[in-house]
Amino acid sequence: MVKIFLAEDEKIVREGIKNGIAWEKYGFEFAGEAPDGELAYPMILKSKPDILLTDIRMPFMDGLELAEMAKRALPDIHIMFFSGYDDFEYAKRAIKIGAADYLLKPVSSSQLLEALERMSETIMQEKSEKGYKQEFLKQQEERKQMDRDRLFDIIVSGKLGLSELLRKGQEHNLSLSAPMYNLILFQAKGAESQDQYSDENVLFDKRLKEELEGRADIIGFNRLSEGYGFLIMGEESDMERKVTYYSEILIRLAESFPEMEYFGGIGTPVCRLSEIRTSFKAASRAYACRYMLDRNQILTAEAAVRIHNDTGSISLEGIDITKLSRDIIPNFLKNGSVPEVKYFVEEYMEACGNNINSLIFRQYILMDVYLAVIGFVSQLGFEPEQVLKEFGDAKTMQPCVNSMESAVKYTREILAKAIGFRTTCSQKKYRLVLEKAVDYIAAHYQDEDISLNAVASAVNISPNHFSTIFSQEMEITFVEYLTKVRMDAARELLLKTDLRTSEIGYQVGYKDPHYFSYLFKKIHGITPKAFRSGGENEVQK
């Protein structure tokens, strides 16, 4: 119902208006009354009416001043003045304030009701438009969230200056200014493959957002297959406590899911946003240890250094190299990414301690890496001839063992190439998944409750991962694609059937016909009715 508040100093007139209209019968709610503006104002702030019906001349505070104050406090309120004074100056000021109507006394009930019904129709239309706009913006949230999460890579790249970073943060309503910064890189995944659909992963992501919502000293970024990145901001004296506090929150949240494993890496504090790349490098080194250490821990950069220092005293003499873990390289090839190769190789080589200075040990390490890569790529389904052509035989590795630098370079190159092969296979698999997803959307776009989660579940991929591959491969977000499918179907129905617009909206998944019309015009710049009348050429331009 449309709420109405009445401000009128003449009691007889006030009572006549209040009791002369069956408010509820006509879709109104009488929200209150007052004999002057001074008494009316606090009552208006409390009741928040849609329409303020006020006399202009009243004691203590007149209707014009009341209207100005009410409009400042409640910008959406509609003002209807009435007065016995046919004064042009009053009318001009009323218009300046934003009066929706101006009636001269005496006003009959039927005349007032007619004016109120016109105003009510405008109000309902405005409310609908506002609701539709909010719904439309909500639908576009996927792209906004994606752009926001990509901001993390921009921040840690070190390529932008402070002013540009702060501006980009403001675009996403993020305040990036602080005396000191640090980073936490974190990954949590269920017992199933991270790429597969998992209720635990979906619920973890939801609870994480709820946990961090409203906090000004930490910003979380979803890095999809690479986990999460958290930018922590605060004073120098308080930074260590904050890092510990948020690490404990992440651990507690992950451990609330019995089947979930987690690992984190903490960077080093820096006092400039432009230096955050240094913190990121330190965090990445610690984070890369997840391929070599037990899961379910968050490792600081300092702890990662101590681990390497502890292994530095190991000598080649007496070491049983057959007991070195053969799972580390295959595990990285399966789950790592090309940007992580650099940090992984650094961790892997340092884990060898001083032994890496030995030619024989380097030969063993590189042979182990080579065999792991060949085995991994072969399991992907590539023919042996193609594998040998791309990676060479063991003889091609030999010159690379002569120095530490050449060994590191060779290891980086061969791992990056293997991950590239994995990506090629994944893209083939993703094409099949996307074909299945497209077929699912085509069969269910009429369902009002179709969602990214529902489609991801149907193709058995985690929502985050599905959102990523869908956007990358289709070059359009899920919501944008769904809307396009619906609008294409609507356009065809508008041109080839005599169905009413409301029926067409219902058939393409929009149960609210007004929202369907709003969305159609928002996207195409023309109403469905105008499109049907020959405006399709305007849409195509």
From TrEMBL:
Keyword presence, Cytoplasm: yes
Q: Where in the cell is it found?
A: Cytoplasm
One Pfam family it belongs to: Response_reg
Is the keyword S-adenosyl-L-methionine in the record?
no
Q: Where is the Response regulatory domain?
A: 3-120
Q: Which residues form the HTH araC/xylS-type domain?
A: 435-534
Recorded superkingdom: Bacteria
4-aspartylphosphate-modified residues are where?
Answer: 55
Query: Which InterPro entries does the record cross-reference, listed alphabetically?
Result: CheY-like_superfamily, Homeodomain-like_sf, HptR, HTH_AraC, Sig_transdc_resp-reg_receiver
Q: Which UniProt keywords apply?
A: Cytoplasm, DNA-binding, Phosphoprotein, Transcription, Transcription regulation, Two-component regulatory system
| Role of this protein | May play the central regulatory role in sporulation. It may be an element of the effector pathway responsible for the activation of sporulation genes in response to nutritional stress. Spo0A may act in concert with spo0H (a sigma factor) to control the expression of some genes that are critical to the sporulation process.
- Protein name, per record: Stage 0 sporulation protein A homolog
State the organism named in the record. Answer: Lacrimispora defluvii
